[in-house]
């Protein structure tokens, strides 16, 4: 069995990359004082009996740096989209203009910027935990192979491979967090 063991590092890397992709998505939803269509991605609208992302009920545009517009395709959904935005916790007050909903993005104050950096830190910690969970799964596979007769040298080799991959991903999370915090604090 010891010669047959091959840890699927590609699978571990794919799962860790998934944690990074999720982190980027969460970071994109944090508003930094500039308008971005991605800030509306987590907002879901009750449309046609199911919860639907905003970008599937209308066109989201960013005509200027402090304005997002949503051109709702179905007039019957305009009020539901407005309600979803108000209840989303984004802190944006939608303004109606027919089937177009305008979202003026207010300037962030210092206190709100600090709160957002803490939220970004929480998102990064969740990503680190997810990456460590993947590492633990890899280490468990190695321990199982060791019990099935893997040599100690092979065990040490695979453990160092998993740890190196984990360290690289944690550094990537930390760099992404530093970048996002700098972006949030930029006035």
UniProtKB/TrEMBL annotation:
Keywords from UniProt, A to Z, are: Cytoplasm, Protein biosynthesis
Q: Example GO biological process term?
A: cytoplasmic translational termination
Q: Does the keyword NADP apply?
A: no
Asked if the record carries the keyword Protein biosynthesis, the reply is yes
- Residue ranges of every copy of the Ribosome recycling factor domain listed in the record: 23-185
Protein family per UniProt: Belongs to the RRF family.
Q: HAMAP family per the record?
A: RRF
Q: What does this protein do?
A: Responsible for the release of ribosomes from messenger RNA at the termination of protein biosynthesis. May increase the efficiency of translation by recycling ribosomes from one round of translation to another.
Official protein name in the record: Ribosome-recycling factor
Name the species this protein comes from. Antarcticimicrobium sediminis
**By which gene is this protein encoded?**
frr
